[in-house]
Amino acid sequence: MSKAAELAALIGSQTALSNRNLIINGAMQVAQRGTSSTASGYGTVDRFKTEFAGVSVTQSQEALSSGSPYEDGHRFFLRATNTSVSSATSAFLQMYQNVEAQNLATSGWNATSSTSFVTYSFWVRSSLAGTYYINIRSLDGTLQNFSSPVVLVANTWKKVTLPIPGNSNITIDNNNGAGLFIGIVPHYGTDYTTSGHTADAWAAYSGTDITPDYSQSWTNTASATFDITGIQLEAGEQATPFEHRSYGDELARCQRYYAKVSGLNVHGKQYNSSTWLGDPQYPVTMRATPSVTTTGGQYSSIQVGTSTDKFYFSRTSESCYINDWAADAEL
Prior knowledge:
By secondary structure, the protein is mainly β. Helix content is 8%, strand content 39%. The chain has four helices and 22 strands. A six-stranded antiparallel sheet has the order 1-3-4-14-6-9. Strands 2-5-10-7-8-12 form a six-stranded antiparallel sheet.
C-alpha cells in the first residue's frame, strides 16, 4: 500500500490529504524577521508569538540535527531562552499562534458541538522538568478558555496529542479576524492562575484564572530553555501524521500576514509634472490592509490606503525609490 493510501485509510475518505493543518509554519521553517530576537511578540519564526513580561527572554529559530522530531522530518524548532530570573507573580511567557477565524469556520470543525473535535499535536521540550499547560482561547463573542496539562521530563522531546471538543458557548466568525488563540505556556505567574482551575474543560475566559498554578517556575530558572516544533491543528478526533509543506508553500501562507522584501530597489515613475510615484506589489494578497515600513531609498511619503495588493510611495523628484520594505497584517 502506498503512503498516500495508508494516510487515506487512517484519516478517512472524507478528509483531504492536503491542507489539513490549520497552523501556518508549524515546522518553524520560515523566519522572515530574523533568527533571534529579544523582543516580546513576533520576532523570529513567522506566525508564532513568543510573548512575555516581567522576565527577559531571547526567542530564536534553531536547527535540528537529531532526536525524535528530526526523525519525524523536522529540521527547525522555536526556542525561548530565559536571560534573567524573576519570581514576580505577574511574570509570564506564552508561545502561540492566532488562527484566522474563517479558516476555522470552514475547516469542518463544528465548534459549538461537544461531539465535534479539533486535534492539537506538537513536539515540545523544556530544560526544566515539570507540568506545563496548553492554552486555547476562542476570540469571537464571549471569550472561552481551555487548558490542559503537559508533563515534561527535563531536556527530553515529547510528542503531545490532544483532541479538543467544541462547546455551545464558542463563537467562531467567518471573517479575517483572529478566531482562536492556541499555544503552550512555559509559565504564568499566580496573577493569571488559580489552584482551583478546572483543566480539560471550556469555561468563560478570565485573565486571573487561565490555568492551574504552576508547580515549577521557568521564569525564575536561569538560562532555562523551552522548545516547540511540529505543530498541527486539524479537524477531527484523530491525529494524523504531520503535514509537511514545501518552504515556498509555507512562505506564501506566512506572507498573507507579514511580507518582507529585501535587496530590491523599486523606482518610481513620473506620475505628473511634479510627482514620481511607485507601486510595489505585495508577494500575495494580504489578510488586511497592512502597515508598511521601509529601510533605505529616497521618497517623501508612503501611502497604504485600503489595498491588500500594493502600496504607493512618492517624491517630487526623479530620484524616487525604496530599498527594503515590510508589510505587516498580523493577527
